[in-house]
Amino acid sequence: xxxxxxxxxxxxxxxxxxxxxxxxxxxxxxxxxxxxxxxxxxxxxxxxxxxxxxxxxxxxxxxxxxxxxxxxxxxxxxxxxxxxxxxxxxxxxxxxxxxxxxxxxxxxxxxxxxxxxxxxxxxxxxxxxxxxxxxxxxxxxxxxxxxxxxxxxxxxxxxxxxxxxxxxx
Length: 169
Ligand code: SF4
Ligand code: SF4
Hints:
Helices cover 24% and strands 14% of the residues. The chain is of the alpha+beta class.
């Protein structure tokens, strides 16, 4: 007894390929005139939504001084144990200590934001910077100067308006 073939059998119109070709052309034409979502990275950067947790910065006060008072609350709260610092006597009369050295190992950082939550001085924050890859592991261990530079390029909220060359990222 023969088995009845119930597989797909294209209609005469379908087997001419015209419906498929017309449908494909329609999709192409539609996207040609619709809003573009591609960006010319890295010259152009895709703005991230508010609250994005990216590269960390150390904040400065109105006088341009580092805000951190080396209390070590952030390093204590950090689940990845990637923050280290060396405290010294502050050269300013309004605080006892400041970080002589401050280092974050971005290879270990999980961008959780716990350091920002723990800081009593609003001295450490995560930023909108998401493109901070490097060619060596050493380049992703950020010192105080690098973390303060992240403040310089993000403090005005115009990081995405500037070019890659200008930000130096
Ligand atoms: S974001 Fe999280 S993992 Fe990264 S330094 Fe802060 S507390 Fe540590
Ligand atoms: S918690 Fe804030 S003030 Fe304290 S060491 Fe960390 S960054 Fe500095």
